[in-house]
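Allow me, if you will, to draw on your knowledge of protein folds for a short while. I have a record of one protein: its chain in single-letter code and its fold written as discrete structure tokens. Kindly check, if you would, that the fold set down in the tokens agrees with what the sequence suggests. Thank you for your consideration; the sequence and its tokens are set out here:
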Amino acid sequence: MSSSFKVSSFEDIPIETPIEDIPIKVERVRNGFKSHKTQNLEFRKGQLRNIYYAILDNLDLLYASIQLDLNKSQLETDLTEIAFIFKEITYFIENLDKLAKPESIGVEVIMKPATGHIYKNPYGTVLVISPWNYPIVLAVSPVIAAIAAGNSVVLKCSELCPNTSRLVIKILNTALDSEIFTGVTGAIPQSTVLLKEKFDKILYTGNSTVGRIVSRAAAEHLTPVLLELGGKSPVIITKNADLKLAARRVLWGKQVNAGQTCVAPDYILVDAAIKPKFIAELKKVYEEYFPDNDKETWTSYSRIINERHFDRVTGILKKSEGTVIVGGISDPHSKLITPTFIDKIKPSDALMEDELFGPLIGIITVTSTQEAIDFICNEHDTPLAIYIFSNNFKEQEEIIAKTRSGGVGINDPLMHVALLNAPFGGVGESGTGGGYHGKFGFDAFSHSRTVFSQSSLVERLLTIRYPPYLPWKQDTYHKMIARNPWFSREGPVKKSFFKRLFGGKVLAVLFFSTVAYLYKIYQPKA
């Protein structure tokens, strides 16, 4: 029997899932979770292994489909889509036993010898709504985390990249148990029907407008939601930056996927003192990456997803009052827009209204790091990412302390998203509900369930909590529980030398000795 997951075609996956099929699909995976088969860790590992090999067996088809949808090169697809999937599956298979193991927690002295544990239980049936800009990794990675945590999954892929969406669903259908996974294709009608169903958790990746719709629908069922949105992610280039490095990495970060990245650099705040040198370095590296604007150099460059988005991005550029420094070339036939940097931007410019989600980036001049911080806080204060180019540690820490964002990249854009064991998520307008990836993905799709267990051996000592509530019990309780905290009313809040030295062990012995003594004194004689 062959273990290959190779698929020859995805034509049997409809571009739009029939509306009447959706409730049936949801009910099937809901019952699959209720069967408790996902409780078995070996079952989960087997499903994760299948995803790994199914992706591996169909790389050529994935390369071809994503090129049809976005003109992504194989290398960029490997770097931004495939590599993280393989890394995350391997992590979960190697660490699932440890992640799923109940976590022992400390119990207060007054409750001992009780024990406390946190169990990580799956939510149930999860809905993942994935976007079009990274149609492989942003669909598959949440499915991996949800299955690792023991859930069943409904995946709704974007209609804007029909080839890759259908192929991803076909691959996952081939790899996964049909009772714990199903895929849905289509647009607003399919999403509307899905959101009427009751799920146990929803992860949506996309824009804030749809995010609000998802949140309202989820609220009808009290379903927790993890929203991964976007925003205008700024780049701060200070006097202490390596300008050649900044130019190379900002341009790289902007040109990836033609700027259609939720964490792409959106605008630059550059110190006036070093701005001319930065622009000079930018022009050099632009010529290095895209020599002479030769059309052959754009063969493997990603395209704008469709005509509507092409018109939106070129319309913003036409309305901008800034000056194009590099780039500015567009072709409606191929939906090509070259990376374009625009100088002399004001806060009121068309480039600063909304997230650009394209290869445009404006340059704003500031006179200090504090001015850059103030601009971010006043104009777009909760971006998905902030990028700091500075070799001064204190400067870096000041920016981090005085701003808010989903994540921070220091001297490198985008790469914080590739960290396996760090949460990827937004704050405020750029996302709610926490983050995911690696351990944080497991936690995002798990309910932390407190389990408390008390011994029967201490029942006599617990008499104080049972009615009738007589005066002697209150008196005993007050003697047991000191009302004088270890910290004083004024001055530094520091633990005493004795408490730092002995911690809670000596206190625990004293506590139980006191309880036993007071119980002996106050317990009424029979």
Notes: The chain has a mean pLDDT of 93. The chain has three domains: 28-229+440-449, 233-421, 463-522. Residues 132 and 158 are 5 Å apart (CA to CA). The longest strand covers residues 115-122.
